[in-house]
Amino acid sequence: MDQQQIQYGQQWLEELLHLSGLSTQVAADPEKLSTEGSCWLTIDDAPLSSGQIEALIGANGSALDAVQYLANTTLNLGRVEEQQVAYTIELAGYRVRRQAELQNLAEEAVQRVRDTGVEYEMAALSAAERRQVHTYLKDYEDLETYSRGKEPDRRLVVRLAQSQD
Fold it and tell me: Which of 14, 72, 111, 127 sits at 20 to 30 Å (Cα–Cα) from 88?
């Protein structure tokens, strides 16, 4: 990912916020970029009211997820897969807190499946959150994950890995 793509993402998000009547800055987090493989664009919450922050995050992160989906779709339009960038939109520490919650949910699912031997179906998550949990759990060789159902009630299932005999 090059600096030009990062700046393009920052400018695009600042313009979207400006058009929405929110005058604030957006910063890229280079630490997240190197560790997560995603370009984290953090909205400066200092000039925003608590009501504006709540509205931008939305119920269970739904508005922030929508902005993130729009950013990823728009900013990668017409790019070949190797040139596409994954953008994560952060506001007021929401993504960091939610990642910790997802990590805990994933670890609880692991423990439950290992203890009982029975598959465990997690509560409905957004597509991005299901992808995160799949990623967290891919290193557990004794377990496998898959998604079941249709949106908006699609669920991630964790189960003991099926033997490949």
Answer: 111
The distance from CA 151 to its chain's CA centroid, rounded to whole angstroms, is: 17
Q: Among 10, 17, 82, which Cα is nearest to 47's? A: 17
What residues does 41 pair with on adjacent strands?
28, 89
Question: Residue 107 to residues 30, 39, 85, 136: CA-CA distances in angstroms?
Answer: 28, 26, 28, 9
Q: Are residues 116 and 151 in the same domain?
A: yes
Is residue 110 in some structural domain?
A: yes
Rounded Cα gap, residues 67 and 61, in angstroms: 10
Q: Kindly write down the DSSP assignment for every residue of 82-143, as one continuous string.
A: GG---EEEEETTHHHHHHHHHHHHHHHHHHHHHHH-S-EEPPP--HHHHHHHHHHHTT-TTE
Residue type, 69: Y
- What's the pLDDT tens digit per position in 27-75? 987 666 555 678 899 999 999 999 999 999 999 899 999 999 999 999 9
Whether 87 and 20 share a structural domain: yes
- Domain holding 148, by residue range, is 98-160
What CATH number is associated with residue 40?
Answer: 3.30.300.20
The pTM of the whole model exceeds 0.90 = no
